[in-house]
Give the backbone structure.
Amino acid sequence: MIDRVAILLAAGVSSRMNTKLPKVLHEVTGRPMLAYVLDACRSVGVEKIYVIVGFGADQVKERFCGDEDKDIVWVHQAKQLGTAHAVMCCREHLENFVGQTLVLCGDGPLIRAKTLQTLIEKHEAEQSAATLATAVLDDPTGYGRIIRDVYGNIQGIVEDSDCTPTQRAVKEVNPSYYLFNNQALFKALSQVKPNNVKQEYYLTDALSVLIATGNKVVAVTAVRPEEAMGVNSRTQLSVASKIMQHRVQQELMENGVTIVDPENTWIDARAKIGQDTVIEPFVYIHGAVSIGRDCRIGPFAFLREGTVIGDDVVLGVFTEVKNTSLADGVRARHHSYLGDAAIGCRVNVGAGSITANYDGHHVHRTSVGDDCNIGSGAVLIAPLTLPAGANVGAGTVVSQENVDKLCAK
């Protein structure tokens, strides 16, 4: 098995986004952009991931500090002097590494593992020193152009700002999907000079060095136009989110979920939804929400982080659920709020009923036993435990003290 690592470029400041937040932490369908790139790398057998950070480094590290992120090595780039300079910051970690090194941008959330697999297969079949995956775009503005000779062999990459008019007309572009033999990469980097308009060290110049010194460099046109898009503005962030939302919903529908009106539905990429569940129009699902089989959600339902829903559950119009588990057979059809609660099997929640979970200082939990009936407009004041089979009348305000008195009788 060939050892494989990745270097992800995530240090830059995005002036066009006009933000205090590191660009790679901006969310696409509920997840930071960087998370999608990390996932793609892990899917193709990357053993260790070197993430280059600079602006907002502590924020990025804090966001990716879970058990699943133990394969990340953080590398600091104090000054952003170009893509080659960013990769050179990894020299102390990788100068003795013998294997393959992927180099990717952290602000490319639309990356697919399938594309990286194609890149790897091409690299190994050609036994090249470097391989890049390219895209063909109708409008290549802003991208480095792939320059080939009359035989189709790659001669180099010219950044958009350095292109001649003829080069600017080329539609094959470099979306920054690179795979190198690591030793060849760092040898070439030592010869890169900032001979360009921006006076930066370009990673693309490392490819030119490899070609000039007789190393084999190949390119495979494997990147879909949508995958080529990095996010450098709020507009591009919105476009990327819509594309990702389509992917999320498409996968759910292929797995047996009915989404009545995809254009007017928003589902977090982390959500799990079971077979034969129906999602009505204007539903908004945010966070790592889990929904079982044979449910009907919405319209206008709002499901928030920490919600776990069993099978055969019906949530109706304008129902909101947050950090709550709903067991099988629950019905909450109209204008209800269920927050920080555990709702038992076959519970009926009447229209306008709520859990009052916040006392102004602390959030408290509510537990409702199986087969309870909560009448319309009831207020359940947490902390509260309702026993199985309890019947709460319409408009009742229920506290634990009330319940204890009733049980004592």
User: Anything to note?
Assistant: The two ends are 71 Å apart (CA to CA). The chain has a mean pLDDT of 94. DSSP finds ten helices and 34 strands in the chain. The first strand starts at residue 4 and ends at 10.
